[in-house]
Each structure stands twice: as structure tokens, then as C-alpha cells.
Design goal:
The protein is mainly alpha-helical. It is about 55% helix and about 5% strand. The protein folds into two domains: about 110 residues, no CATH class; about 30 residues, no CATH class.
Amino acid sequence: MSLKIKSFSAYITKSNINEATKDDILRASEIHIQDVQKGCAFIANKIIEAGIMHDHTKISLTDKFFDKNNRYIGVQAHTVAERHHHIKSQCPDDVTLVDILEFIVDVVVAATARNGRVCDEPISSEILQKAYKNTFEMLKREIIVENN
């Protein structure tokens, strides 16, 4: 999926602001708002996809959670396969803010459903900075500039 945005020439710049009319500024603002909406929709869709795929291995690998006597033996295969389980330890190099948001939602929803008490799960500044940078780069890779 790529994000098609308008050429920067559609925008009012510092170099031509004094020559711009009210209509020019209004149109440039409208174009910019539409472009930002496209970027937000891209990120929102990534979050929705994460929600759809959340804990998919709990379904696809269910048989691995039990031994031959059908006794529960754990979910290591699940936690290894799911990105959001590695936010605080063995964080993937390509972690994004989408992963962080999925982790937050998982923690709050699971804790609330279990006992109603949600404990803060701090994430290191280093991981947050990495997620910010990777999300920034992910968005940059998707943008295609259209000429007017």
C-alpha cells in the first residue's frame, strides 16, 4: 500500500507566502489536511491489522499448548511468535509504535478482564525511541508524491 500525496508545489511555502492569495492558502491547507488524513488512515489500518492478527497463534498453535494427555503445558510457542510479547525483552529491531499500542491494549484488556486491576507496564525510552524512528521510516517508505 502506498500513500499518494500532493506535490509540495501545491503548498504555500515561506518563499512564496507573500504572493499567495487567500484562496491559495485555503487550498494548500485543504490539500495538507487531506494528506495528513491519508497518513493517519495508514497508521490506523496498521493498528487494525495488528488487532485482527493479535494472538493468532493461540488459535493456530493450540495443540502445542497441551501434552499428549491433554494437560496444559504452556504457551511458549505463542509468546515466541507474537511480536507484542517482545516489547520489553528481546524487542525486535523493527519495533513500531503499532507494536507498542498493541502491547498497551493487550496489557490493559487482559488485566481488566482477569481481575480489574491494571498495573503500569513501563517501556524503556530506548525502545520507545526505536519504535518512533521505525514508524517514521515506515511512513516515509509508503509516501509517493504526485505532481499537480
